[in-house]
Amino acid sequence: MLIRRLALTATALTSALTVTPDALADVRHGQVDHLTVTIAESGSATTDGTSELYCHPTAGDHRDAEEACDGLDELTVWGKDPFAPVAPGTRCTMQYGGPASAHVRGVWAGRRVDAHFNRENGCEMKRWDALVPLLPRTGMHVPS
Questions:
Q1: CA distance 54 to 35
Q2: How far apart are CA 101 and CA 110, in angstroms?
Q3: In angstroms, what CA-CA distances link 83 with 15, 51, 78, 124?
Q4: Looking at residue 3, what is its pLDDT?
Q5: What one-character DSSP code corresponds to residue 50?
Q6: How far apart are CA 41 and CA 53, in angstroms?
Q7: What is the mean pLDDT of each run of 10 residues along the chain (144 residues)?
Q8: What is the model's pLDDT at position 143?
Q9: Could you give the strand order of the β-sheet that contains 49-54, starting from the edge strand earlier in sequence?
Q10: Nearest to 41 by CA among 124, 138, 128
Q11: Three-state DSSP class for 109?
Q12: Are 100 and 43 in contact (CB under 8 A)?
């Protein structure tokens, strides 16, 4: 009976201590702020594709990693989500900023991120522009 109890305890501990590859990557880089950014149809082959961004300290293959981390740090304010979608019912200008789209996923400031971006109207363009240089600058911008 004692051996069986020890075996069950060992199995439970092994399960509890199992680490996922994503968690290992965060430990290896020494932080939890990690975003995967996928850009499509931005109008530039150098910005389209997928890149990894780590902050605190800065690492990854994002083209403007240091500036992107600094910009995200400035946008990170208690109670405000820099990746939040446009609120339902928001009135937006009917201007089209092009076919560019982005998907940002990962963890920022201890919270999971899974956000989609486009430039289909003035609100979406403003939301995109707020995250430059995490997202690439595109041809048409919304005045501040």
A1: 7
A2: 25
A3: 33, 17, 13, 11
A4: 52
A5: E
A6: 20
A7: 46 38 46 91 93 96 97 93 96 96 97 97 97 89 57
A8: 57
A9: 59-60, 49-54, 34-40, 101-108, 111-118
A10: 138
A11: coil
A12: yes
Question: Could you tell me if 104 and 37 are in contact, meaning their C-beta atoms sit under 8 angstroms apart?
Answer: yes
pLDDT score at 32: 75
Look up the pTM and report it. 0.75
- 65 contacts 59 by C-beta, under 8 angstroms: yes
CA gap 134, 82 in Å, rounded: 11
User: Would you list the DSSP string of 66-94?
Assistant: HHHHHHHHHH-BTTB-TTPPPPTT-----
Cα separation of 136 and 57, whole Å? 21
Beta bridge partners of 120: none
